[in-house]
Amino acid sequence: MTLLALGINHKTAPVSLRERIVFSPDKLGVALDSLLQQPLVQGGVVLSTCNRTELYLSVEEQENQREQLIRWLCEYHQLRPEEVNDSLYWHQDNAAVSHLMRVASGLDSLVLGEPQILGQVKKAFAESQRGRSLSSELERLFQKSFTVAKRVRTETDIGASAVSVAFAACTLARQIFESLADVTVLLVGAGETIELVARYLREHKVRKMVIANRTRERAQALAEEVGAEVITLAELDEQLVQADIVISSTASTLPIIGKGMMERTLKARRNQPMLMVDIAVPRDIEPEVGKLPNVYLYSVDDLHAIIQHNLAQRKAAAVQAESIVQQESSDFMAWLRAQSAVETIRDYRAQADELRAEMTAKALAAIQQGGNVETVIQELTHRLTNRLIHAPTKSLQQAARDGDQHRLQILRDSLGLD
């Protein structure tokens, strides 16, 4: 059994490729079932966020396993291998273990130490368990990663400052507008990222906030918390005219705001400038919108510079966190290696128990036939001892004859002679 991690992220692939390899939530179950039908796959978890798509797998060791898995990924998303090969990374065993621990701890995120990814990893793990069975090794790995992430969060200052994609979006807005108290912000979507954005905006006393979502019900609770209005996506065209800032993050597979819609909006606004931040993958706003005059469009990749500015205070904490991950991944691999001895230990115990039962039955039979109890017991212990030490004795003798001092020492350690 081998543990693997295969994927792309914000470091290896632009958003234009990442959005083509996203596993949408409504189709994730189908994707998992398809993945688990691959002959070499024993268990799998699919993690798909705006910044990464990763497969965590336990597989049977095969020579062409990498080619098989990349072929499945490309066929599922209707891509050619040459389109993704340069962006894919591949981690095996210890490297896969430490990678997942780093991901869960926020050490591999666009925003160093951001806490959202842990919830996304937990959600991916829960989805993989729904109606399916994971290998014990893969299940243990994810549970261990959750523990490591909690330890990193409590033992270091990695999460001491509020830095995230949502925070970066709000920072960008504050850099462009002197005061948010004079602007109207339109938030598109009502997911976790938009929730964070809304809370940051409320802290900076934005003049007016409107949340546009497919259904009013999902957005209503958030709107009440932050003092925002709620509209449906059908009302988006009309509301865009009033918006100075648009921040969008939905799970839509197609753009929600197109070039034609924005041309009408700008005309109605008399070309007043607009800041638009698209933090969705796939993108919510057509890239062509950014070419329109008086529209300043930023994607998740554009936020990278802002995020880098806020990372200085987390660098020292990250060093400590990396040390924790290294220690915990080593401990996990030691446990994993120990599992390979479980079957051998089970066989050895069964052999010894079978011998004990055989010798006990003979001794009881001898006593029942009138044999002297003391003599029978002494003979039992003598024969049992000889049978138990026969194989180790032969191994010790062979090691000595071969002059193999290393093997001889291992045998002595195994027998507790030191």
From TrEMBL:
<feature type="binding site">
    <location>
        <position position="120"/>
    </location>
    <ligand>
        <name>substrate</name>
    </ligand>
</feature>
<dbReference type="InterPro" id="IPR015896">
    <property type="entry name" value="4pyrrol_synth_GluRdtase_dimer"/>
</dbReference>
<dbReference type="GO" id="GO:0008883">
    <property type="term" value="F:glutamyl-tRNA reductase activity"/>
</dbReference>
<dbReference type="InterPro" id="IPR018214">
    <property type="entry name" value="GluRdtase_CS"/>
</dbReference>
<comment type="pathway">
    <text>Porphyrin-containing compound metabolism; protoporphyrin-IX biosynthesis; 5-aminolevulinate from L-glutamyl-tRNA(Glu): step 1/2.</text>
</comment>
<feature type="binding site">
    <location>
        <begin position="49"/>
        <end position="52"/>
    </location>
    <ligand>
        <name>substrate</name>
    </ligand>
</feature>
<dbReference type="InterPro" id="IPR036343">
    <property type="entry name" value="GluRdtase_N_sf"/>
</dbReference>
<feature type="site" description="Important for activity">
    <location>
        <position position="99"/>
    </location>
</feature>
<feature type="domain" description="Quinate/shikimate 5-dehydrogenase/glutamyl-tRNA reductase">
    <location>
        <begin position="172"/>
        <end position="306"/>
    </location>
</feature>
<comment type="similarity">
    <text>Belongs to the glutamyl-tRNA reductase family.</text>
</comment>
<dbReference type="InterPro" id="IPR000343">
    <property type="entry name" value="4pyrrol_synth_GluRdtase"/>
</dbReference>
<comment type="function">
    <text>Catalyzes the NADPH-dependent reduction of glutamyl-tRNA(Glu) to glutamate 1-semialdehyde (GSA).</text>
</comment>
<dbReference type="InterPro" id="IPR036291">
    <property type="entry name" value="NAD(P)-bd_dom_sf"/>
</dbReference>
<dbReference type="GO" id="GO:0019353">
    <property type="term" value="P:protoporphyrinogen IX biosynthetic process from glutamate"/>
</dbReference>
<feature type="active site" description="Nucleophile">
    <location>
        <position position="50"/>
    </location>
</feature>
<feature type="domain" description="Glutamyl-tRNA reductase N-terminal">
    <location>
        <begin position="6"/>
        <end position="156"/>
    </location>
</feature>
<dbReference type="InterPro" id="IPR015895">
    <property type="entry name" value="4pyrrol_synth_GluRdtase_N"/>
</dbReference>
<keyword id="KW-0521">NADP</keyword>
<dbReference type="GO" id="GO:0050661">
    <property type="term" value="F:NADP binding"/>
</dbReference>
<feature type="binding site">
    <location>
        <position position="109"/>
    </location>
    <ligand>
        <name>substrate</name>
    </ligand>
</feature>
<feature type="domain" description="Tetrapyrrole biosynthesis glutamyl-tRNA reductase dimerisation">
    <location>
        <begin position="320"/>
        <end position="416"/>
    </location>
</feature>
<dbReference type="Pfam" id="PF00745">
    <property type="entry name" value="GlutR_dimer"/>
</dbReference>
<feature type="binding site">
    <location>
        <begin position="114"/>
        <end position="116"/>
    </location>
    <ligand>
        <name>substrate</name>
    </ligand>
</feature>
<feature type="binding site">
    <location>
        <begin position="189"/>
        <end position="194"/>
    </location>
    <ligand>
        <name>NADP(+)</name>
    </ligand>
</feature>
<dbReference type="InterPro" id="IPR006151">
    <property type="entry name" value="Shikm_DH/Glu-tRNA_Rdtase"/>
</dbReference>
<keyword id="KW-0627">Porphyrin biosynthesis</keyword>
<dbReference type="InterPro" id="IPR036453">
    <property type="entry name" value="GluRdtase_dimer_dom_sf"/>
</dbReference>
<comment type="subunit">
    <text>Homodimer.</text>
</comment>
<keyword id="KW-0560">Oxidoreductase</keyword>
<dbReference type="Pfam" id="PF01488">
    <property type="entry name" value="Shikimate_DH"/>
</dbReference>
<protein>
    <recommendedName>
        <fullName>Glutamyl-tRNA reductase</fullName>
        <ecNumber>1.2.1.70</ecNumber>
    </recommendedName>
</protein>
<dbReference type="Pfam" id="PF05201">
    <property type="entry name" value="GlutR_N"/>
</dbReference>
